[in-house]
Amino acid sequence: MAGYNRTRFVEDLLERTSNDPPSFTVHLHPEHWVLNNGSKFLYHNQMAALLDDIRAHRIPVDFLDLFDAVRVPFYDGCLIVELLDYRPQRGQEPTPDKPEKTRVILHPNSETMWADICNLNTKYGCRLTDSEALKVEAKLLLATGPKLCLDPDPHLTRIANHVLRVSTPTVPISLKRKTPTQEPEENDAEKAKRLKVMSFMSPRTTRPTPRYIVILSFIRH
Asked: Is the pLDDT of residue 221 over 70?
């Protein structure tokens, strides 16, 4: 049952890494946000998809190549994002002198796992076939996922589902405030992600360069 309690894992990881540097930092200002010490981004542009991934506590699959290139630190397979919120909690209040600091854990999922397998396959000469890559993914899922509950008792299933639901971390408070979203852009982003999943095993030369390549220099700082 412990494998279904994500909050316990998050609290333990944050405690063990409290003195370690974060994977990257996001500065939240009233009208814009900044990745590490890079340029300013508006909340409604394409780069704000990164904030959507942070809200969902998931590793952004579009950035995996960049994270690997600049050696962004991972902790137990996860990313630690430090949010520095410089925005007032109420509209009429002045900007605080010191930001509100929050650390958020971004977890891998089936999409990022498949992207990692494809990236490794490309790096080592594309030796895996699609079938072999799927077998590798299956073994990784068995090794990293919670144990399957094979007990037919429906009460135990409800308990496991309840524990997983109530222990899943909520959206960071700093990302709930004054961060505008636009439904059409979110829908387009979801469509793009589905297309990306379908093309992961395509040869590297046929895949377009991610638009996020512009932030490479920002992650390095």
From this structure: no
Query: What value does the mean pLDDT take over residues 83-103?
Result: 85
Q: In terms of DSSP bridges, do strands 79-85 and 24-28 run parallel, antiparallel, or are they unpaired?
A: parallel
Rounded to 5°, the CA angle 81-83-86 comes to 165
Kindly indicate the confidence band of residue 166, based on its pLDDT and cuts at 50, 70 and 90: low
Secondary structure of the chain as H, E, C letters = CHHHCHHHHHHHHHHHCCCCCCCEEEEECCCCEEECCCCEECCCCHHHHHHHHHHCCECCHHHHHHHHHCCCCCECCEEEEEEEECCCCCCCCCCCCCCEEEEEEEECCHHHHHHHHHHHHHHCCCCCCHHHHHHHHHHHHHHHCCCCCCCCCHHHHHHHHHHHHHHCCCCCHHHCCCCCCCHHHHHHHHHHHHHHHHCCCCCHHHCCCCHHHHHHHHHHC
Task: List the structure tokens of 184.
Answer: 């059409």
Terminal-to-terminal C-alpha distance of the chain: 41
What's the pLDDT tens digit per position in 112-155? 888 888 888 888 888 888 888 888 888 887 777 766 767 667 77
List C-alpha distances in Å: 52 to 21, 46, 61, 76, 163: 22, 11, 12, 22, 24
Angle between helices 6-16 and 154-167 (to 10 degrees): 40
pTM summary value: 0.68
For residues 32 and 42, the answer to whether their CB atoms sit within 8 Å is yes
